[in-house]
Amino acid sequence: CKIQNNNNATRFEKSLDKEIQEYFWIKNDLLKLGLKEELYLDYQPIYSIDTNRLVGVEALIRWNHGEKGIIPPARFIPIAEKIGMIHPIGEWVLLKACSQNKEWQELGYDPIYISVNVSVLQLEKPDFTKRIKKILEKSMLKPQYLQLEITETFFTQNYELIQDTIKELGKLGIKIAIDDFGTGYSSLGQLCELNINNIKIDRMFIDGVDGNINKSKIVKGIISLAESLNITLTAEGVEREEELKFLNTNRCTFVQGYLFSKPVEAYKIEELLKRNG
Ligand code: C2E
Ligand code: CA
Ligand code: CA
Ligand code: CA
């Protein structure tokens, strides 16, 4: 028994050790990151359920590390937030995403919106709206083709400041989406007050929604809530036909997920745009 405990303790120490090591190399490498060389964006299509048309894409960051290969955002964004690198990285993402969308429009395709994830830390910066304006000027993208995805966690931090920023962004004509809806703490009142355009229902509720009574009740509830507030809805992580069928029957607006496409490189989106008209 004693030996077993020792083994467990050693295993625990080893995994902790690995985590700490990973934290340090990611931190170090982030600090000397060549933004332009090592970062890139994949884009995941978002479709209208009604028309089957591509209406937008979500930009998702990837880090192509010289030695370690491709590092997913879940592993480095939280560390980038801790060490302040989220600001240059976030700015790079916004400019890249807006410029890419403008490029597609210049090629003559029907305009779609680009949806960009922003960290609460970016929103908290007092000059965030000014920076967004600059990025729109630089990329020459019209504000209605940019959507910012904000996670629900912002409702718990610096709420007043962020609320003002969201209102300013809305006045510019930018779309605001609440990401991972259902996992955080937002309330009806807050959604009303902020003029949110879009709610993204978290994947956790969509996964198996067709066969789970509680999930289906929650999703139906969110849909009717959004409808009554005039907010469009995006279901995230749609993987199965049955899930899509449920969402269609219950009048969800937009869908996104592996059933349609994984996040892909820009040239693949261009192929979809060609078919889109
Ligand atoms: P998220 O914003 O909730 O993005 C959706 C994630 O779900 C993406 O993972 C996407 O690849 C994945 N996904 C999409 N459809 C499906 C599906 O049908 N099934 C499953 N199992 N997964 C699906 P990814 O690209 O690894 O991104 C993870 C998270 O990293 C994002 O979650 C977002 O919070 C964050 N992130 C990504 N790019 C950025 C960025 O530019 N800035 C910031 N601040 N965060 C980012
Ligand atoms: Ca997102
Ligand atoms: Ca999400
Ligand atoms: Ca699923």
Q: Tags for this entry?
A:
about 280 residues; 8-stranded mixed β-barrel; 12 helices; 9 strands; about 50% helix; about 20% strand; binds ligand C2E; binds calcium ion
Report on the architecture of this protein.
With 277 residues, the protein is an alpha/beta fold. It has 12 helices and 9 strands. The protein has an 8-stranded mixed β-barrel with strand order 1-2-4-5-6-7-8-9, surrounded by 4 helices. The longest helix is centred in the first third of the chain and has 30 residues, at 2-31. The chain is globular and about 55 Å long. Bound molecules: ligand C2E and calcium ion (CA) (3 copies). One calcium ion binds at residues 58, 117, 149, 179. Residues 23-277 form the EAL domain.
Q: What is the secondary structure topology, with strand pairs?
A:
Layout: H1 2-31, H2 35-38, E1 39-48, E2 54-65, E3 69-71, H3 73-82, H4 86-106, E4 113-117, H5 120-124, H6 128-139, E5 146-151, H7 159-172, E6 175-181, H8 188-194, E7 198-201, H9 203-206, H10 213-229, E8 232-235, H11 241-249, E9 254-255, H12 266-276
Parallel strand pairs: 2-4, 4-5, 5-6, 6-7, 7-8, 8-9
Antiparallel strand pairs: 1-2, 1-9, 2-3
Helix pairs in contact: 1-3, 4-6, 6-7
The protein binds ligand C2E and calcium ion (3 copies).
Protein name: EAL domain-containing protein
Domain EAL: 23-277
Organism: Tissierella carlieri
